[in-house]
Write a structure and sequence with these properties.
The complex is a heterodimer of chains A (74) and B (222). Chain A is an alpha+beta fold and 74 residues long. Chain A has one domain: Phosphoribosylformylglycinamidine synthase subunit PurS (Mth169, Chain: A). The N and C termini of chain A lie close together (5 Å). Chain B is an alpha/beta fold and 222 residues long. Helices cover 22% and strands 26% of the residues of chain B. Chain B has five helices and eleven strands, in the order E-H-E-E-H-E-H-E-E-E-E-H-E-E-E-H. In chain B, strands 2-1-3-4-11-10-9-6-7 form a nine-stranded mixed β-sheet, sandwiched between helices. A two-stranded antiparallel sheet of chain B has the order 5-8. In chain B, 53% of the residues are buried. The chains are: A alpha+beta (74), B alpha/beta (222). Chains A and B meet through helix 1 of A and loops of B.
Amino acid sequence: MRARVLVRPKAGILDPQGVAVERALPALGFEGVANVHVGRLIELDVEDPSQLDAMCQKLLVNPLIEDYEILEHS
Amino acid sequence: MKFGVIRFPGSCDEVDAVLACERVPGATAQILWHGDADLHGVDAIVVPGGFSYGDYLRVGAIARFSPVMESVIAFSREGGLVLGICNGFQVLCEAGLLPGALLPNVGLRFLCRQVNVEVVQSRMPFTADMSVGERLSIPVKHTTGRYYAPAQDLERLDAHGQILLKYANDGNPNGSSNDIAGVSNEAGNVFGLMPHPEHAVDPLTGSTDGLKVFLSMAHAHG
């Protein structure tokens, strides 16, 4: 099964990448942009999707600084 | 005293770390390869700076699972001295040997400059050769050096005297919580810092203050 894991910077922790993008967009003429955050998308083929959560906890995500969401697609 | 300095694929400061350890009178140092779980009987471990495993995924995330790190974790649980510098600090945080995590610098830029750090705790085994309030001139060179821990953890670190070094003079270069430059674990035998004491051991490069970290470790070892 093809799976996708979405990793986001944890809410409340300063995300300077998001801030930089948020400042860059109006400079290019795109107005009305707020709350930009830059995360990471991990795509992987897994035989046993029930292991995805453990993979996230152990390696793919640092739960102290990141939140994650497992998006499954067959 | 015998220091062991770990070399991961992508380490770049291990040679300077060996040279710094060897400046301690009576000490020797050897490189420990990341794929070898044998610590070869060393008395203390240095996890050096660099870009272990390319820093892929997150800084330190993959190095943390290398064979040598399993032995380092066991060594630290028995009270062995473990010093993590820069990328080594990141690896020790990922391994759960130190509290907190390192995030990208607030300014998002690679920083390479001499900074002043203030000694917050003078205690065995890493800062005993320094006095509280003393300022050390040591370089930083990193992109991911913003120390972060949740507010309640920061309070605990402070209460337990685990914050050993802070950036002095409002000179926090990276946005670290509470100006923290270096923290220890609760037991005190594991220490991580972003500045590079191994690059400040010779007057030729402007400062010998970094040597005090290695001398403290040697004195603690006895």
